[in-house]
Amino acid sequence: MGHIICFDLEGPLSPQDNAYEVMSLAENGERIFEVISKYDDIIALENREGYEPGDTLALIVPFLLLHDISEKDVENVSKRAKIVDGAIDLVSKLQSERWKVYIISTSYEQHAYHIGAQLNVPKENIACTRLSLKELRASVGNFDVIEHAEKDIIQLYSHLDDHERLVNLLDEFFFEELPKSYGNILEKVRVVGGERKVQAIHRIARENKAKLSEIVVVGDSITDYKMLKEVREHGGLAVVFNGNEYAIPYASVGLASLDIRFLHLVVRHFDERNHLIEIVKSWETERDGFEKDPENIPDDLITPDIKDFIVKEQIFPYFHYLEDKAKLDEVIKIHKRFRNLVRGEAAKLG
Fold first, then answer.
1. What is the largest CA-CA distance in the chain?
2. How confident is the model at residue 323 (pLDDT cuts 50, 70, 90)?
3. The pLDDT of residue 142
4. pLDDT tens-digit profile of 112-150?
């Protein structure tokens, strides 16, 4: 059996926040999304029963329907998405070394399959959120309540720090008013985030007759922290790439970089876990010296192709071994800088 690696999509593989970009097709769509995203962060961190990080993608659907946004619009927005530098190279390298590459993403299927195709990851290896706006539009009994709520949400944009007001208003809309004409909003669209990413990891392990200790997962945000935690606690490798404060504490290795191909320096030693940790620690402590003299990076810490890339492009990764919790604040600052550079506006979302 080859090794297994599972990537979150938005962040590690593509910088676009597809749902945010799709919502921006509507007037004031960015503001609506940011308010709902903040609400998502708040109630997800409360561990509210039945709610998972990333369920934002279910909560925005009534507003997509209100503005006649279609599956085709989702596809067209996805076509504008870039691929993270080095991702195609990394996935190709891993596949040539008999790794099984999977994507586990909150993204709508129209986006996930488009990005997966560019990376040569087959649909059957992608767990993502099914979305049929045509079916859902037919089930809406009253758009007036959605339109009224939208006006309230736009006003909330100037009060994102007033968590109590935000939660009270959106709780009432999503879980009291809307169900009367729409049904259970979290059942209408089952987002693959939080615990559902954990379920996907377990399913992939069963299908491959593998243990979680034999799996690598790569994530970056609040929708990934449960997946990262689950794999780390079971002895697998949990990697955070340009992560935020919600994800970094749950990973075992951090990589902050403009280019994800550097991950290969670590995962190629997956079977030699102690050596893998030593490589991460060496990059962490010796990085400044490597930057001054990349030609003399020891051969056991790099590959010839990545050394050539570094010498040519003058791009250097930050690796961190994250078992030492005392340095998390410093790591978060470094990752935030690269997250902003790679993801742009999407970096501010949870």
1. 67
2. confident
3. 83
4. 999 999 999 999 999 999 999 999 998 888 899 999 999
Structural domains of the chain, count: 1
- The pLDDT of 338-347, averaged and rounded, is 76
Expressed in percent and rounded to 5, the helix, strand and coil fractions of the chain are 60, 10, 30
For residue 294, is it within any domain? yes
Assigned domain for 296 exists: yes
Q: Please, are residues 21 and 343 in contact by the beta-carbon 8 Å criterion?
A: no
* Whole-prediction pTM: 0.94
Strand partners, 116: none
| Alpha-carbon gap, residue 341 to 339, rounded angstroms | 5
Q: What beta strand segments (E) does the chain contain? A: 4-7, 100-108, 126-129, 215-219, 237-241, 253-256, 318-321
Domain of residue 203 covers 100-105+193-348
End-to-end CA distance of the chain: 35
Helix 163-172 to helix 144-156 angle, to the nearest 10 degrees? Answer: 180
Q: Which two tokens stand for residue 22?
A: 């799709």
Q: Is the predicted pLDDT of residue 235 greater than 80, yes or no?
A: yes
